Amino acid sequence: MINTVECHTHGEQEETFVCQHLAGALSTGEKVGFFWSGGPRGDAWCSACEEVRVREGGATGDWNERSEAFASIKLLCGACYDRLRAQHGI
Ligand SMILES: [Zn+2]
Ligand SMILES: [Zn+2]
Predict the structure, then answer these.
(1) Which ligand number lies closest to the CA of residue 27?
(2) Which of helix, strand or coil describes residue 49?
(3) Are 46 and 68 in contact, with CB atoms under 8 Å apart?
(4) What's the pLDDT at 2?
(5) Dist. CA 69–CA 78, nearest whole Å
(6) Residue 71 Cα, ligand 2 centroid: separation in angstroms?
(7) Whose atoms come closest to the Cα of 12: which ligand?
(8) Of 46, 49, 43, 45, residue with least CA distance to 16
(9) Which domain of life is it from (predicted)?
């Protein structure tokens, strides 16, 4: 059972989650770095968020309130997610 989201461009799609910077990069076409939690469409975040995640989470790299606030994860449609990943050459 997957949750879906209605995208203006792609219609009904699988729900995915990315940091606010990646969500912004979708319209600018910029490369901001692409890290994700694994799986075909795992939650994704940018280089800046990765830096904060490692600084805050140490060796385990766990997210905490500060790194999550910095990432400010946004909901994105699966097709937009795929486009964003391709934009970063992944
Ligand atoms: Zn980010
Ligand atoms: Zn879309």
Answers:
(1) 2
(2) helix
(3) no
(4) 85
(5) 23
(6) 20
(7) 2
(8) 43
(9) Bacteria
Task: Identify whether the C-beta of residue 18 lies closer than 8 Å to the C-beta of residue 84.
Answer: yes
Q: What's the rounded Cα separation, in Å, for the pair 46 and 61?
A: 14
| pLDDT on residue 49 | 98
Cα(31) to ligand 1 centroid in Å equals: 11
pLDDT single digits (tens) 49-68: 999 999 999 889 899 999 99
Distance CA 68, CA 52 (A): 9
Give the ligand whose atoms come closest to the C-alpha of residue 5.
Answer: 2
**pLDDT tens digits for range 11-53:** 999 999 999 999 999 999 999 999 999 999 999 999 999 999 9
Q: Where are the domains of the chain?
A: 4-81
